[in-house]
Design a protein that fits this description.
Layout: H1 20-37, H2 41-48, H3 52-60, H4 70-77, H5 81-85, H6 99-107, H7 112-134
């Protein structure tokens, strides 16, 4: 099976309704992370490509933050996405590696071709690992 879909062919994420246990306090965690990091509304707005007023709306719960913007918020504040979501260890790999560190590193790669190659490499490694485990 070939996974040749380019990253640019993938539709952007749309705002999502979070589970009730996450939806209520997430806006408070967003604000707390920003304030703790010493990031102003203007700086966060610039990092996310929106106005400071929009950041304030995210933080008060007036508007929902699009899930695709969570990594940028987390990076700007120096926290993990799972911390913003209040999920603790839920976003950890099978061996305890933090998935958000992988996402952060991936997002730091500016070249789309390099990102595509990395995705294909990861898929090939996963397929090889799956086949190895099936052969036991």
């Amino acid at each position: 099976m070939s996974h040749s879909t380019a990253l640019t062919d993938v539709e952007p994420l749309r705002p999502i309704a979070l589970a009730p246990s996450l939806g209520g306090p997430i806006h408070r965690r967003l604000r707390q992370a920003r304030v703790d990091a010493g990031v102003t509304l203007a700086q966060m707005g610039q990092a996310l490509g929106v106005s400071p007023q929009q950041i304030q709306k995210y933080e008060t719960g007036q508007n929902r933050l699009c899930a695709s913007r969570l990594p940028a918020w987390a990076v700007t504040c120096g926290v993990a996405v799972d911390d913003l979501l209040g999920q603790g260890d839920l976003l950890q790999g099978a061996r305890g590696e933090r998935v958000d560190s992988l996402v952060h590193a991936f997002n730091a790669i500016a070249n789309a071709g390099v990102r595509r190659a990395l995705v294909e490499t990861a898929r090939a490694l996963a397929d090889a690992d799956r086949q190895r485990r099936a052969g036991r």
